[in-house]
Design goal:
The protein is an alpha/beta fold and 196 residues long. The chain contains eight helices and seven strands. Helices cover 31% and strands 20% of the residues. Its EC number is 2.1.1.67.
Length: 196
């Protein structure tokens, strides 16, 4: 199969938390992602004041960049350390509160109110908790999701977006027999079957 041995690969939540703890975060880009800058017009589509979702956000610098442009940013990340690092590295004051609908979850919100980061499993979210979004910047989420969870992930994403939303997705292309992932190889045919 063209996904090689990756089909059965599972990375646990604990492994992700450990990556953050150990500073093994080669996936984080200090300067922001050049593809977001290149395709920003596609994401915004001439609109301002959008609600933009960052799945598996880590401490992505693009969240502040888009918030500074006047957009409202919502992210989800399993690592509390990543979320707190985001606010401290940008010197952004924030408040922290529990998310009543999700046991053990917390929401960290900038004092300005335009950045809200949920610390929980992405699969615990729903549009009744976070609302709907005008745009999604999926820079490293689909390729980080375990292959067996891709259908659940795509269904959630489809449920979280408005009909007129823009979804920017970055994937990686390589021979999956030579790398076990993550990032996982997601063939274009699978992206089409997941998102239509």
């Amino acid at each position: 199969s063209d996904v090689g041995s990756q089909k059965e690969r599972v990375v646990t939540e604990e492994e992700w938390l450990q990556k953050w703890e150990m500073g093994d975060i080669g996936f984080h880009k200090e300067q922001g992602h050049p593809l977001l800058q290149k395709y920003l017009d596609v994401l915004l589509n001439g609109r301002s004041g959008l609600r933009i979702f960052f799945p598996l956000c880590g401490k992505a610098v693009e969240m502040k960049w888009l918030a500074d442009m006047g957009h409202s940013v919502v992210g989800v990340e399993v690592s509390e350390q990543a979320v707190k690092d985001f606010f401290s590295e940008h010197s952004l004051p924030y408040c922290e509160e529990p998310v009543p609908e999700i046991s053990g979850a917390k929401m960290f919100q900038s004092t300005s109110g335009n950045i809200s980061l949920y610390c929980c499993s992405i699969y615990d979210l729903s549009s009744s908790i976070v609302g709907k979004f005008d745009g999604v910047w999926d820079r490293g989420a689909l390729v980080a999701v375990n292959p067996c969870d891709r259908q659940s992930y795509a269904s959630l994403m489809i449920n979280l977006v408005e009909k007129s939303s823009s979804y920017l997705l970055v994937t990686v292309s390589y021979d999956p027999n030579k790398h076990k992932g993550p990032p996982f190889y997601v063939p274009e045919s699978e992206i089409k079957s997941l998102f239509g």
